[in-house]
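Handout for the seminar on molecular recognition.
Each group receives one record of this type.
Step one: identify the two inputs.
Step two: read the structure output and locate the region that could contact iron/sulfur cluster.
Step three: write two sentences on what you found, then compare them with the reference statements printed after the record.
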Amino acid sequence: MSLEEVARRYAVAVSPVLLALIDPADPADPIARQFLPSIKELNILPEERADPIGDAAHSPAPGIVHRHPDRVLFKTVSACPVYCRFCFRREMIGPSNNKGHDNKLSPDQFEAALSYIAGQAQIREVILTGGDPFILSPRRVEEISIRLASIPHVKLIRWHTRVPVTDPARVSDDLVAALHGPGAVTWVAVHANHAREFSPSARAAVARLVDGGIALVSQSVLLKGVNDDVETLADLMHAFVENRVKPYYLHHGDLAPGTSHFRTRIEDGLALMKQLRARLSGLEMPAYMLDIPGGFGKVPLESDHLQKTTTGYRVRDIQGQWHDYIAG
Ligand code: SF4
């Protein structure tokens, strides 16, 4: 087993900004752990899945995932400036033609995806995800914003990105301007997992978004050895709020292949939330969420959606169906 094998199987990239944040003297550095490959990624458990959150089961057209009636995911690109070692879409993302797939929609697929959204009058919100959609040029982002905002029933356009912390220089004034589509409101969900990711350049990138009139929320993943203690999580939530980003979701680690060394147990996540609640204001608290494996949607774990069983847990989806949850 070698790191070459890991790199053959999963894309590897680290941006200079993140490399500069890594302390080479610290073998447990939380930035290094998130981005530098490990041979532990070759340890794949039976319960892990290539498509852990079940995108394929809800994909009526390439690039579209339509799981909830009023919202749709729109995946225009499957590349990122960095590749997180715990990524839930790690089997589907990478540089162009990695694993036989292209890293962006073809012009025909792009038009077909827009036609699908235009033809579904119940869709209010379009969530741009990927890959990382902020890897696109401002011109392409502007085209997407304008085309989506021109669909009368699309009221909200939400971009999910890690670029403000992983490659902050991409958040240019031109990109911020390109996010505004007349007729729709733009939100950006910023993904960060450790307060140290908020380098001075990341803080400046987030400020450009907020000062440019974009509303921001956070998303993070609870990761063993990165942020699975109350001090680190509290510091992370403080960093979000201090940068004018409302904490939104803290995700339980998905069952992506080769990521068991990152996954915490659900009971540990619940205990951490309890400790966080004793320290943080309501403004600073995220919701602890599980994407039910198989495509059944996200549910809050601090709720009656979760029940302990003799073998693990079961989780109730928003339709009321129960699903066994094996790991953790
Ligand atoms: S930036 Fe997002 S999509 Fe890209 S590797 Fe990280 S978690 Fe996955």
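Reference statements: Residues 80, 83-84, 87, 89, 93, 130-132, 162 surround iron/sulfur cluster (CB under 6 Å). The first strand starts at residue 64 and ends at 68.
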